[in-house]
Design brief:
Elements: H1 2-23, H2 29-41, H3 45-57, H4 62-72, H5 77-85, H6 92-114, H7 116-125, H8 130-143, H9 148-156, H10 161-174, H11 176-185, H12 191-201, H13 210-219, H14 223-236, H15 246-258, E1 272-278, E2 287-293, H16 294-312, H17 319-333, H18 350-357, H19 359-371, H20 375-388, E3 398-402, E4 405-409, H21 411-414, H22 421-434, H23 446-456, E5 461-465, H24 469-481, E6 485-489, H25 496-499, E7 507-510, H26 514-526, E8 535-539, H27 541-551, E9 557-561, H28 566-581, H29 587-606, H30 618-627, H31 630-640, H32 646-658, H33 661-678, H34 684-696, H35 699-712, H36 716-725
Parallel strand pairs: 5-6, 5-7, 7-8, 8-9
Antiparallel strand pairs: 1-2, 3-4
Helix pairs in contact: 2-3, 2-4, 2-5, 3-6, 4-6, 5-6, 7-8, 8-10, 9-10, 12-14, 13-14, 13-15, 15-16, 16-17, 17-18, 17-19, 17-20, 19-20, 20-22, 22-23, 22-29, 23-29, 29-31, 30-31, 30-32, 31-33, 32-33, 33-35, 34-35
Length: about 725
């Protein structure tokens, strides 16, 4: 009660003292930020949120906001208030406002630090007092790569030794952020400056400069530069002698970028990264940066480095296949509506390069996708393989070369076991299309997967892992509302039996304690059936930030608060599955898979392929015949008509007799084709019913029944009485 009275008094006082301000168009920005901090401190969260929202509504430029904070508050006041306001126990509205204010402040600090004029002022501080040097160095390191063109100019000038040493010291403090601009400029510098830059980079404890220095050591005509390069390489290498060639060195670095490792990501968590070029005609250092979205930055760099590797060795170079994989990934990861400045719309699509490079390169890309559980990339690779692969391509393994070395692999066959149904379906269709002539390991899986595509393609399966039975019920209900068959258990071991009969798992919801999230996800990834399954991890309170930080770099895992609304939970599930595996298979897509699989099985049956025996799918196809209708039903019957089994012909006939009209006519025609190929496999009861249909129906149905009678080669004592009984009007023309 006392707190409520205090809150009312505070509100009234704020209202009273705000009247003059309101009369003067409201409080100033400085007053708003001071009020926000003050009311956060005294736990008046509603008032703090109100003042914070008013400040956001002013639409301040980020740099203006930083200046405001510095003028209106002590240095740490704002940061302390944001930390308090963002506590999980506070109201969501206040947390959101605090996060937006904090982001505005950080954006402003970065923008100001990266402004060329600000960078120039800070570089000049490097020749000032000790305090000025410390301030300038701190600000330049904060600017990172953005300061490198001006820092490089300061480093290579000859007039001011203090400035040169100051710039050198800043670059060493920057570490990895200094490397990419320096190695980009390296070939365009004079010999003395090359030696200076090489000596500088040798003291940066990252290896990403090694390929460029190795390249320079081979190409330079200067003994001093060559000695500096060789000395730098020896200093950095402990487990490598410096052998190999430039092609290998650049390929190895391309792998680092393709893996999106932290040491080659200058600005983690930011929307853009920088790609560098050098042109001596550019004023100053000759360096020019292109900002590119982080989603496609690593692919752009991997492609550049692969191209550089291929210049040194075009044949037997895994950089060729890695370039194709990177190009596919670039296409996959490009945000909607984004115009990539390094890959414009006038350039060829990724599939053009993939198919033109041949099946072995496409299989390498597929193998890489399987190893990294990259489902969208696997789909693109299989699509390319389907276009170019022939029967002979499936018989022999490919020599798979990557950072782990060279080994024999059959990626398309490996894809049959990949835990994503789209990948299984597409790889089976690709293998079926090749019509192989010799058997191979894994061939026995192709026809069953094709038959599964006919029946189960649109089936959705979800798994819930939580020890809380009440929570399990809530999460199951959410998944079931999205159309998922759902099983739940306290842990993965408890789900072994119910999961054994599932065709695959589309998504897993994990709701366990913070310390159990990582072990649970590791256990999921150790299961071959779940290695590529998207996982939505739910966390509460302080655990949310802990879990989010631990799993932030994993594209197959999303982290959400347990308390989010049901609608937001559903949207999160859809977004995760869309990004990780291309989304669930819709009803329309399932129908397409069914049609493609039936066409593939028909072609195999017509060709009497000895490797893929369509008879292996007899039972599921018979079951499908009774569950479907229309065009799919007729396609199933067409495939069944090529299977020499009595139970198949009997099932087809039963389906025809149960049908009527044009459907019966079509199905009788497929039974007729079966009879022509394999003879009469029907039972006596079905023959009697067939004769009854022939006698008592008219038009196309009667003719189809009579035609089937002829194909069955019924004994004359079954046919002649019909001729006599009908005065020869019905059977005379149809018994052949």
């Amino acid at each position: 009660m006392q707190q409520q009275i205090q809150r009312i008094i505070v509100t009234l006082l704020v209202g009273v003292f705000s009247l003059p301000a309101l009369a003067q168009d409201g409080p100033s920005e400085a007053e708003l930020i001071q009020d926000f901090v003050h009311y956060v401190r005294i736990d008046q969260h509603e008032l703090a949120a109100d003042f914070g929202q008013q400040l956001l509504d002013r639409g301040l430029d980020p740099r203006q906001f930083v200046a405001l904070i510095e003028d209106a508050l002590r240095r740490d006041d704002f940061s302390d208030a944001v930390i308090v306001a963002r506590r999980p126990t506070n109201r969501p509205a206040l947390r959101r406002i605090a996060e937006e204010l904090d982001k505005l402040y950080e954006d402003g600090r970065r923008a100001r630090a990266r402004d060329p004029q600000e960078i120039e002022r800070n570089i000049n501080l490097l020749t000032g007092t000790l305090r000025q040097v410390i301030i300038g160095r701190e600000r330049l390191v904060s600017a990172g790569e953005y300061a490198m063109p001006q820092l490089l100019s300061a480093l290579v000038q000859n007039d001011n030794l203090v400035l040169r040493n100051g710039a050198r010291r800043v670059m060493l403090d920057m570490g990895r952020q200094a490397i990419l601009p320096l190695v980009t400029a390296l070939p365009g510098l004079g010999a003395a400056r090359q030696e200076l830059v090489v000596n500088l980079m040798s003291q940066i404890e990252y290896d990403t400069w090694l390929p460029f220095v190795y390249e320079l050591s081979v190409q330079t005509n200067s003994d001093n530069v060559r000695s500096a390069c060789e000395r730098a390489i020896r200093m950095r290498l402990t487990d490598r002698s410096g052998g190999g060639d430039a092609a290998e060195w650049f390929y190895d670095l391309a792998e680092v970028y393709y893996d999106e490792r932290r040491e080659v990501t200058a600005f983690p968590g930011e929307e853009y990264q920088l790609v560098w070029d050098f042109d001596p005609a550019i004023p100053g250092s000759g360096l020019a940066a292109t900002a590119i979205r982080t989603e496609v930055f690593h692919e752009a760099m991997a492609m550049r480095l692969c191209s550089r590797s291929l210049r040194y060795r075009a044949e037997n170079n895994p950089a060729h296949a890695l370039w194709i994989a990177s190009n596919f990934s670039r296409e996959i990861d490009t945000p909607d509506g984004y115009d990539n400045p390094l890959y414009g719309p006038d350039q060829k699509e990724a599939m053009w390069f993939a198919t033109g490079s041949g099946v072995d390169k496409c299989q390498w890309v597929l193998g890489r996708a399987l190893d990294s559980s990259d489902t969208p990339l696997a789909m693109d690779a299989i699509s390319a393989i389907q276009r170019v692969a022939g029967a002979g391509d499936m018989q022999n393994p490919i020599l798979f070369q990557d950072a782990l070395g060279a080994r024999d692999r059959r990626p398309l066959i490996e894809a049959l076991s990949y835990p994503n149904r789209r990948v299984q379906y597409e790889s089976s269709l690709a293998l079926a299309k090749t019509q192989p002539e010799r058997n191979f390991e894994g061939a026995e899986r192709v026809v069953p997967i094709l038959s599964s595509a006919i029946r189960d393609a649109s089936r959705r399966v979800g798994v819930v892992i939580t020890p809380d039975t009440e929570r399990a019920g809530v999460l199951r209900r959410i998944l079931e509302a999205e159309g998922y068959e759902t099983v739940s258990g306290a842990n993965l071991a408890a789900l072994a039996t119910p999961m054994s009969d599932l065709p695959g798992v589309d998504v897993i919801l994990v709701d366990v304690t913070t310390d159990q999230v990582r072990p649970t996800i590791d256990e999921i990834r150790d299961d071959a059936r779940l290695v590529a399954t998207p996982v939505l991890a739910l966390a509460t309170g302080q655990g949310f930030e802990v879990v989010r930080r631990r799993l932030a770099a994993n594209p197959m895992v999303a982290v959400r608060r347990s308390a989010i609304a049901e609608a937001e939970m559903r949207n999160s599930i859809r977004a995760l599955i869309e990004e990780a595996s291309g989304g669930t298979i819709s009803t329309e897509e399932a129908a397409i898979y069914a049609t493609r699989s039936l066409d593939a099985m028909r072609d195999l049956a017509v060709a009497r392929n000895a490797v893929f025996d369509v008879a292996d799918a007899a039972l599921p196809l018979v079951a499908t015949l009774g569950d479907t209708e229309g065009g799919i039903k007729f396609k199933v019957a067409e495939v069944l008509s090529w299977i020499n089994q009595a139970r198949v012909q009997v099932a087809m006939m039963e389906s025809a007799l149960d049908a009527g009209g044009i459907e019966r006519v079509q199905l009788l025609g497929h039974v007729e084709n079966s009879a022509k190929r394999f003879g009469n496999l029907l039972d006596g009861r079905q023959v009697e019913r067939l004769i009854d249909v022939a006698i008592n129906s008219n038009g196309l149905e009667a003719t189809a029944a009579a035609s089937l009678m002829g194909a069955l080669k019924l004994p004359e004592d079954r046919v002649v009485p019909l001729i006599i009984g009908s005065n020869g009007s019905m059977i005379v023309t149809s018994v052949r």
